[in-house]
Amino acid sequence: MRDKTHLIFDMDGTLIDSSQLLANTINYVRQKIGLSKLEEGRIIEALNDTSINPAQFYYETETFEPIHERYFQEYYLQNHERQSRLYEGMAELLEALSQERKLAVATNAYDLSARPLLQNLGIDRYFDIVMCADLVPKPKPHPHMLEAIITFYGTGRARFVMIGDGHRDIEAAENAGIAALLVEWGFSSHEGAVTSVTELAEILGVAI
Hints:
Structural class: alpha/beta
């Protein structure tokens, strides 16, 4: 895939192992609004499930409400440094790719959550643009954030590839008319997906 000069990465489950952080944050919100805890495995499995309404699944409401976001940020921002890490080899991959490719992030996290996490892990410097769910009309699988990234660079869609661990990422890429790579070291397992950061580096044509 050396012809793909513009790489768009999902964040959670692709760049960063934030499973513990997300599960604990969601359970913190649930406790604050009077709901019982969910098992971590159930929370993580649901993150990439496009068949469910996440607000209904996590908080038993039809849509996310301001109080959910307030409590989410309250826990997330206090704990992201201790409860998240880069996947093995990811720092080396980003360093190698940044020498010859353009890199961006498209995440369904909110801007206030995503940027501190990327900064804390020391990888924010690799990305020209970070598009988050609250910066566009609709999150992935809608193509809005990918369209914004394509517009930012002003180059042809054939040069782009979306790299993510969930079907929302793949559907967003299809809806935006760009290529996609599905990985499975994150929150979901997929038949035929890229199985390691090392394999991804080989596919992209860089050595780490």
